[in-house]
Design a protein that fits this description.
The protein has helices spanning about 25-35, 45-60, 75-90, 110-120, 125-130, 160-180, 205-215, 225-235; strands at about 15-20, 40-45, 90-95, 135-145, 180-190, 190-195, 220, 245-250. By secondary structure, the chain is an alpha/beta fold. Strand 1 (about 15-20), helix 1 (about 25-35) and strand 2 (about 40-45) form a beta-alpha-beta unit. The chain is globular and about 50 Å long. The structure holds nicotinamide-adenine-dinucleotide. Belongs to the short-chain dehydrogenases/reductases (SDR) family.
Length: about 260
Amino acid sequence: MVEYEHTPIGVDGRRVVVVGGTSGIGQAIALGFAAEGADVVATSRSEAAVEETATAIEERGADTARVTCDVTDRATLDGVREAAVDAMGGVDVVVASQGAISRQSVADVDEDEWDRVTDVALDGVRRVTQAMVPAMADGGAIVNVSSLAARLSMANLPAYSAAKGGVEAFTRASAKELAPEIRVNAVAPGFVITPQNADTYAVGTEKRTRIDERTPLGRVADREEIVGAAIFLASGAASYVTGEVLTVDGGFADSAF
Ligand SMILES: NC(=O)c1ccc[n+]([C@@H]2O[C@H](COP(=O)([O-])OP(=O)(O)OC[C@H]3O[C@@H](n4cnc5c(N)ncnc54)[C@H](O)[C@@H]3O)[C@@H](O)[C@H]2O)c1
């Protein structure tokens, strides 16, 4: 008799909150969880985007709630927690995918721009964690969305890069403190086509050509290709994974020539 106790690896029935979940990568993650049988609250500042995404979640048979938030305002995140608990009975999984970017150089980046980016991208992740943990029970999982910019030098992105480096350090710090009840990990996407950068990465542009040539898989990612990594880190398949950063970049970061 071979002894083997199988832990289900799906996310069926899990109760998920995706902050920054009504556009781009976060919206794909929200719809991906719903398609896999989870209930999902997807939130951002935009009422219209929340409505559109909530309808798409319901179309996949999942429960949801319609609630906006601004990650620079902790009270609004407490409101998301309360709405999620009312709608789903609790929170098992939290994904922080909100984004802010600045293209000022190291020499030029000013106080306001630095603060704007780090307030959303770094302090926002800390506020999401602090607001959601009180609703999370044993077995919960947090997935923070980082970026290759946390570890690769990229020109004219100092505030964004510093914020994402902070997200990865905060991910490890909170993984240590919230263990063993809650696992905390990050996904670091490479170059992903989303509405905001569709022009920058359009086929035929110099940037797109350079990325495609340097990427072992030969192309940028569709936003759907980040979903599986987030679901994996939130699922029973990752029950012994915490404090990790999972890079999803088609091999870009680790390739030489
Ligand atoms: N697109 C890429 O190539 C790429 C690569 C690496 C990492 N990322 C990261 O992935 C995440 C999602 O990026 P995206 O490309 O899907 O961008 P996006 O702009 O499509 O999505 C960002 C989401 O965050 C929300 N948001 C912004 N400010 C907010 C605030 N103050 N409060 C609440 N919500 C707020 C937006 O409304 C939107 O729903 C970001 O963290 C980004 O840094 C993106």
